[in-house]
Amino acid sequence: MTATVRTRVAIVGAGPAGLLLSHLLATAGIESVVVDSRTREQIETTIRAGILEQGTVDLLAAIEGSRVHTVGHRHDGIVLGFEGSGHRIDFPSLTGRSVWLYPQHEVLKDLVAARLAGGQDLRFGVTVEAVEGADTTSPAVVATDAEGRTLRIEADVVVGADGSRSVVRPAVVGSRSGGRFREYPFAWFGILCEAPPSSDELIYSRSDAGFALISQRSETVQRMYFQCDPELDPASLSEAQIWDALQRRVPGTVLREGPIIQRDVLRFRSFVANDLRRGRVVIVGDAAHTVPPTGAKGMNLAVADVVLLAEALDGLLLRGDASLLDTFAERALRRIWKAQHFSWWMTTMLHVAPEDSEFDRLREVGELRSVVESEAGQTYLAEGYTGWPL
Ligand code: DHB
Q1: Distance from residue 293's CA to the centre of ligand 1 (Å)
Q2: Helices 328-350 and 375-386 sit at what angle, rounded to 10 degrees?
Q3: Percent of the chain at pLDDT exceeding 90
Q4: Is position 64 within any domain?
């Protein structure tokens, strides 16, 4: 038995991109169906990054029930640490904008609740097998639902917002991976710990031992990362070894330690798919691109894609005007490559690569000095970090 549903936009993936797109479409009066292979609980509890650009916050705050302003924390700056000293970059005075620390899984709880309250057709536990008819005006998603039945979703447009292992991407680029890549010779060891904050603001620290990032979550839980070998087994270090690795990388700050309640190793990759659209099938967010985590551009870039796509679908589906969809990829890629550059720049400037020569190390410190000792340099970083206007 195959259940067939008909909608205007079939959205694969109930992450930030898919859920926000369904919200923007619903606001414009365009019906959609959202499916995700994960359970609601998995979506709402997976720990990801936490920094939202000003434009992302403004969009989310306008959604009924959003807690971004009440549970999230505004951050007006970051500290860049190197050669044993910290240098603060003040965002409002340089750009008139700030960022907010509000973890991605909290964003997702808000979005899932708002979409369900709005009557959204949102289905969990649905595994997509294939996307058909990209070159027709009625593409379809073929999937297996949570009860093991075949589900066919026929739509005017199919959107893949299904993350870096996207099953929609092959329908757009012709293969699982087709795109431009960069791998990095390091990863981040990330922890969540039960401790008070060690710093009011985020510290991005470069030391001879490598990079560390001191971030926060709440008054009682903190998130921290340190540069490690991509092959490192997260279970292989004792808590004492983890604290020692972190503390050595932030020499000017005394870390407040506490029990480590979660640990993971995050691999670094840059990727941009060869194309974002084929006919009536589009990919957005991590399905279309991946950035290394330094600078927290991932979710923000997904939001920027979706803002452009919602306008394009509005044109196509409400006014019969395909021009914005035809130019969607070209316009989205301008910001994607700026964010790729920003993430690559923050990463390479702050990390010590195993193959770095003495020249590379000293040049990178010179680069950090060029940023912190110049208002133009600070402004360049602050503009990228707080996000270019949407
Ligand atoms: C966090 C992650 C990042 O990649 C970053 O640049 C800043 C903050 C975080 O998880 O808090």
Answers
A1: 7
A2: 130
A3: 97
A4: no
* Range(s) of the domain holding residue 226: 184-268+352-386
CATH of the domain at 328: 3.50.50.60
Relative to the CA of 223, which ligand 1 atom is closest? Answer: 11
Q: What is the pLDDT of residues 221-232, one digit of tens each?
A: 999 999 999 999
- Residue 294 CA: nearest ligand 1 atom is 6
Picking from 252, 248, 234, 244, the residue whose alpha carbon sits closest to that of residue 198 is 252
Q: What is the largest CA-CA distance in the chain?
A: 67
Residue nearest to atom 10 of ligand 1 (CA): 49
Global pTM reads 0.97
Nearest alpha-carbon partner for 291 in 340, 327, 257: 340
Residue type, 112: V
Q: State whether 326 and 370 are in the same domain.
A: no
Q: Is 222 in the pocket of ligand 1 (CB under 6 A)?
A: no
The C-alpha R_g of the chain, in whole angstroms, comes to: 21
Is 184 one of the annotated active-site residues of the chain? Answer: no
For residue 297, indicate whether it is catalytic: yes
Residues 126 and 26 in one domain: yes
pLDDT surpasses 80 at 302: yes
Query: Do the domain assignments include residue 73?
Result: no
Pair (254, 194) in one structural domain: yes
Cβ of 99 closer than 6 Å to ligand 1, yes or no, is no
What confidence tens digit (pLDDT) does each residue in 266-275 have?
999 999 999 9
Annotated active-site residue in 23, 109, 184, 204: 204
Query: Which residue's alpha carbon is nearest to atom 2 within ligand 1?
Result: 49
Residues 39 and 141 placed together within one structural domain of the fold? yes
Is 75 catalytic? The answer is yes
